[in-house]
Amino acid sequence: MRLPRNRPPVRVATRRWTMTCRTIVRVAAAVAMTVLPACAPEVKEVSTGDVGGLRKIASAYGRATARNGRPPTGVAELKPFLPEGEDLDKLLISPRDGQPYVIIWGANPRSEQAGETPLVIGYEKTGKDGTRFVFLSMGVVSMTQSEFEKATFPPGHKPN
Q: In the chain, how many domains are there?
């Protein structure tokens, strides 16, 4: 094989190396895409209806905090930030355990006390099937009892 005079031999070697590396990366990616999903933990599907009320409360809580420059101190301060036509009494009850959500009024989702772990602002009182929905400063998540016990709460709040 003759090399063109305007290209040094190093470029051919580099091009071959690049092609080899690309092939290795493609094969590794294909293997990872088939193997890794089997290693991932099972994610439990959550019905939007189960958590929809708490998500609406969380969204309204965030909007009220942003607009007022401080978190709401009660239901009356939250109500203007809920979607129109929402039944507030129904919204504040968990459809899973039939009990009112525990909302920690005045908890600031943007405070330094949260540190690196998100701050709990609200949660289902008992939950269902060993889990409960929890409204954190970063959104609504599902937690097991052991995760809930390790969560960060505002100072002075003792979870049920």
A: 2
